[in-house]
Amino acid sequence: MEIQNNFKINKINANPIQNTNKTNKPSETENNPEKVMAGLDSLASINRIAVTPKKEDFALNLSTEELKKRTDKDVLVTTEMLKPGAPEYEKLDAGDKEALKHLVKAGKILENIHLKLDNENNIPFKNFLEDKVSKGDKDAEMTLKLFNAQKGMNAIDTESNMVVLAKGMPEPEGKGFYPQDLGKEEFHNILINMLNNGEKEEVAQILNQRSVVVRNGDKLEALDYTEIYKEDFQAMADELEKAAKTSTNQDFNEYMKLQAQALRVSDPMADALADKKWATLQDTPLEFTITRESYDDTFSTSISENPKLSKMLEDAGIRVYAKDSLGCRVGIVNKESTDDLLKIKKFLPKMAAMMPYNDQYEQNIKPEGDSKQTMVDVDLLMLAGDCGAYRGGVTLAENLPNDDKMSLAIGGGRRNVYHRQIRLGTTPEKVQQKLDAVLDPEQHKYYNQEADHWFTIGHENTHSLGPTQGREKLGKYEAIIEEHKADMGSISFLDMLTKEGMYTPEQREQIIVSYAVDNFLKAKPELTQAHRVRSVMQTQFMIKEGAIEVNDKGKIHVNIDKVVPAAQKMLSEAVRVQLSRDVNEAEKYVNEYFVWDENCEKVAENLKAISKKLNGSIETPLADKLANEE
Asked: Which residues of the chain have pLDDT under 70?
């Protein structure tokens, strides 16, 4: 529904209202835009209609010079997914090739859902850019290239600069999850008022993982993803059901049907059943995942800093969940490299037994019995939505479902998926440049690019270990400490895994040195960047423990035998903080080690001197081709 005066009306689950005015007489507001808008705002309050400016006149924020710099091939580095004719694709059965066509179409649909959840202005801005590009605007063309790479209007680059593509439009505090005019203090106050009014169920819905929050008068209301994005989710479900008709693997087909059903209904149990089935998939030729990660919702994590509201929620039995950003992965399982991944599975019970304070909590992986952990290495056709948003970096692997998901409560397991094209994207020449810039020459022999993958295997599996309950009470520090715990577990278990034959002594040294080097960053991160904040914390602790030294020229030397004991100390502290369920303990712990000092800066200057990279871009040639086929 549109009206003139450059405004649009976005209708959200509103009931149609009949026009009962049978006369042809103009109303008193017909030629008065202010009264028209006032009336619409009143209507919106009743029917949950969001009246927002129509974004026909965006302005580009970056200068031509800045755009040229940021789109240069050495600054915006491209990582390419599978191409048409790729042997991994060509050797598939015809039915699996047909299924992939529908899977990438589902991924393309989810791309738009992600854009909406990230920022309600993303799609209008993208349309604006595409219109400008069609008219030959070169600045708009470069801006669109950046937009498609970072999948949104705003993102942080590798040097912790916020990139804002539209003038006067900084990143909304509540992303696309909450009304853009809502602040955290008002958010807290509204929830308190609603609890005082006995609206516990409504508040619980606002604080769940899978809803968009809208205003409803002086209250807030939650709309389930399947409701607000019903058309998109139904279209995705159609594609998954088509894939299930041609895929050659019955387990995968069963998962497709369960996932399609979950997209059609507002029922967390439907998600749980799909997740539970997905986590069992081990010997399937294809990979499809709807990823749900909760790093971006800072409103829910802010609640732990409000003692009054936190106590009221606890008394009401309401758990605070951060909202899920949605991504999508489509790929082909690489059987050979998957077999290498599976070698760690038999050691998971021993890893669980080595976790600090393990008598004080229940773990997803038990020290005895079935670990309920599958893992696959995947050749990628696409990373769409949240998991493909290249914002300074992009994920190497994922361990899902997260602990807040219902599938784990009904006996489901977890699944690790590793991204081959992402980790294989760096050339040997670039690696050597980095080593020459920052590592003691005598230790170059220990650096191995594949060791980063070995480290990641330990990281992802450690996510399945440790406390699973109450971590949400750590608020904005929850993700930092969980990612930090996973890193420290990966290093802490190295001696045991080496003794058991998972790694050779030489590989152990390579993992330790490669980890230490890769932990140094080009700039101090923001507190919202969990993966980077924990890198700074670990570097500071390792230096304090004498495990890492930095000389006056910003060169690193790793005292290899001191790294594992230092990691074990940090792992113990991380688990202790998780068990405290105290946001103040978490804040104290993070602040103690999240310190960007002279050592960090010296290494950062060396890194910046040899790398112009500020961001990256994923190209998906095979997926693009399949998406356009009938």
From this structure: 1-56, 369-370
